[in-house]
Structures are given as structure tokens and as C-alpha cells.
Amino acid sequence: QRRPRVLSGIQPTADSFHFGNYLGAVRQWVALQDDHEAFYCVVDLHAITVEYDPKALRERTRRSAAQLLAAGIDPERSTLFVQSQVPEHAQLAWVMSCITGMGEASRMTQFKDKTAKGGADRATVGLFTYPILQAADILVYQADRVPVGEDQRQHVELTRDLAQRFNHRFGKTFRVPEAYIVKETAKIFDLQDPSSKMSKSSSSAAGIIDLLDEPKASAKKIRSAVTDSGRDVVFDEENKPGVANLLTIYSALTGRKISELEDEYAGRGYGDFKKDLADVVVEFVTPFREKTLTYLDDKAQLDAILAAGAERARAVTEPTLAKVYDRLGF
Ligand code: ADP
Ligand code: NA
């Protein structure tokens, strides 16, 4: 009887994680490692689906790992590794692509969103098949739960469909995983455009709070976040999306109920509210940034942690792939 397993990944596509990544996903990763067998990876194979610079990728992969450690991922309890160091991810992705329908893959909304500007013709095939690689990431660990933000729900659904299809066609092989999504923080919005999610690829830096920003810069971003012309601090996602988003962040970082915050700021206007939230953010990011920089100071140690993680990961992925190949008739 093993503990339930979790698997999740994050792309090294920016110098820093943002608050959406942290509150939507990474915070849950930290909490779940207590009673799960946890596998967490920096998904560099996913990061090459868009234009990138190899030198920056190598640096960002280390920065991502350092941030996960700073956030509280414990490499003794959790298996922390880099996706490209575990070849079974890519190997299983090929197999999964052979049981995925073209129509089914074409329905993935994230691909549509990501290619909305440049057009699908200019995108890579890798960006199109990204969700299939993600399915392989999850299934190769026989994961039970996948802690992610709301934007990944559809990809986890596809993963479930593929697992069930494979099991049906070739005999029971995979566990069918479930998305683990914490409703309150499943979607953190852009501070300047609270109708779209905070994203590493967002066009305006003013709308994204990066965990590694200078704390002062983050405070300023909070103070200049878009709200509305009213002055009541109430949680109303429809009519006050900017204020609702700030309340979500405030509540998540302090553990205080949203209703309690509404009471506290009743009749006080947005200025006070944003100033206090700016302080809360500074208090969070200051030590986080210091810890991350400390991990980055010792690259040899960081690389050793990741190499050990990859070895532990392979102890799980090799037997899964062997079983899959056997089922396939190889
Ligand atoms: P990004 O979407 O910023 O490029 P990733 O694709 O690497 O980041 O996603 C890493 C994790 O962060 C995923 O679980 C994703 O669902 C989560 N995530 C990303 N943006 C947000 C957001 N704005 N709110 C909540 N969770 C998010
Ligand atoms: Na994402």
C-alpha cells in the first residue's frame, strides 16, 4: 500500500514565477508533500515549444528549481527533478500521441489561446501536442492527483481520457488521475487587466507580480492595480474583478477570510486596502527572494539535488515504460 501520488510541473519560461503560479499551484505542491508521494518537475521539454534561447533556458531551469526549494519543496520528502533528465516522459509522449485523435487534440483551448495572436500556422507541432506530453508526464508516474491551476483542467481531462483509452485497448496499465484544484486561488488575474489570467507570457509587466521582483517594485504594482471607480472593498467577481482579485491574494497570503477583510475595510476606500496588501506582499516576497538567491549561489549543490531527483524519478518511470512497451507488442 503506497501513499497517494502527486505529480506536477512548471515551465522554466521566465526568470521568476508569478503569484498565479505560486497561489494556483506551487503552494499546494508544498502542502501535499506531507501525506503524498510527490513528484515535482521543471518541465523544460515543454518550454521549447515556443521560441527560446538555450542559455536562458538553462539559467531559468535552475532558477525554477531554486524557487521551488525556497517555496518549501523538501527534496528529501519529494522527488524534485528536471523533465529532460528523465527520458521516459518523451518516450511515453510518443505512445500517447498515437492514441490521441487529431480532432481531440484540436479542441484544446490553451493552444487556441496561445496562437490567437500569431496564428496556428506559425506555431510548432510541439506546441500543438504539448497536452499529450503533459499527459505522459502524469501517467508515467501513475499519479493519483495533479495539483494545477484552472487553466490546466482541460489538459488533465485529456490525460484521464487517454489513460482510460489505453487501459481499455491494451489492458489495465495506468492509474486514472484527478486534477487537484483549489477553487479560491485557481485563477489569479492580471493586475492591469483583471479579465485575463496572470501569465508569464503576459504583455504588460505591470500586471504580473513576480516572486523575484524587487519587493518595492511589487508593492508599487499592487498600489497601481486596476480597481474601479467605486470605493467599496467587496468581493464581486463580476462587477469588481480587480478588487476581487486583490482580496483573493490578500486572503491567500494571510489566511484571513475574505468576509473578515471586507469588514475590516468597510468605509475605508481602496487606498488603505491596497497599501496594506502591498505590505503583506512585501513581507512574503522578501524572504522568498533571499532564500532563492541563496540556493542559486551554490549551483553545484542545486544540480546535485536535481540529479538525485532524476534518478529517483527513473526508478518509477522505467518500470512504467517497460510495462507499456510490453502491452504495445514491442
Ligand atoms: P504560465 O501559465 O504562467 O506560463 P505554467 O504553464 O508553467 O505557467 O504553469 C505552472 C502552474 O501554474 C500550472 O499549474 C498553472 O495552472 C498554474 N498557473 C499559471 N497561471 C496561473 C494563474 N494566473 N492562476 C492560477 N494558477 C496559475
Ligand atoms: Na499555464
From TrEMBL:
<feature type="binding site">
    <location>
        <begin position="197"/>
        <end position="201"/>
    </location>
    <ligand>
        <name>ATP</name>
    </ligand>
</feature>
<protein>
    <recommendedName>
        <fullName>Tryptophan--tRNA ligase</fullName>
        <ecNumber>6.1.1.2</ecNumber>
    </recommendedName>
</protein>
<keyword id="KW-0963">Cytoplasm</keyword>
<feature type="binding site">
    <location>
        <position position="188"/>
    </location>
    <ligand>
        <name>ATP</name>
    </ligand>
</feature>
<dbReference type="GO" id="GO:0004830">
    <property type="term" value="F:tryptophan-tRNA ligase activity"/>
</dbReference>
<comment type="similarity">
    <text>Belongs to the class-I aminoacyl-tRNA synthetase family.</text>
</comment>
<dbReference type="InterPro" id="IPR014729">
    <property type="entry name" value="Rossmann-like_a/b/a_fold"/>
</dbReference>
<keyword id="KW-0436">Ligase</keyword>
<comment type="subunit">
    <text>Homodimer.</text>
</comment>
<feature type="binding site">
    <location>
        <begin position="11"/>
        <end position="13"/>
    </location>
    <ligand>
        <name>ATP</name>
    </ligand>
</feature>
<keyword id="KW-0030">Aminoacyl-tRNA synthetase</keyword>
<dbReference type="InterPro" id="IPR024109">
    <property type="entry name" value="Trp-tRNA-ligase_bac-type"/>
</dbReference>
<dbReference type="Pfam" id="PF00579">
    <property type="entry name" value="tRNA-synt_1b"/>
</dbReference>
<feature type="short sequence motif" description="'KMSKS' region">
    <location>
        <begin position="197"/>
        <end position="201"/>
    </location>
</feature>
<dbReference type="InterPro" id="IPR002306">
    <property type="entry name" value="Trp-tRNA-ligase"/>
</dbReference>
<dbReference type="InterPro" id="IPR050203">
    <property type="entry name" value="Trp-tRNA_synthetase"/>
</dbReference>
<dbReference type="InterPro" id="IPR002305">
    <property type="entry name" value="aa-tRNA-synth_Ic"/>
</dbReference>
<keyword id="KW-0648">Protein biosynthesis</keyword>
<keyword id="KW-0547">Nucleotide-binding</keyword>
<feature type="binding site">
    <location>
        <position position="137"/>
    </location>
    <ligand>
        <name>L-tryptophan</name>
    </ligand>
</feature>
<feature type="binding site">
    <location>
        <begin position="149"/>
        <end position="151"/>
    </location>
    <ligand>
        <name>ATP</name>
    </ligand>
</feature>
<comment type="function">
    <text>Catalyzes the attachment of tryptophan to tRNA(Trp).</text>
</comment>
<keyword id="KW-0067">ATP-binding</keyword>
<feature type="binding site">
    <location>
        <begin position="20"/>
        <end position="21"/>
    </location>
    <ligand>
        <name>ATP</name>
    </ligand>
</feature>
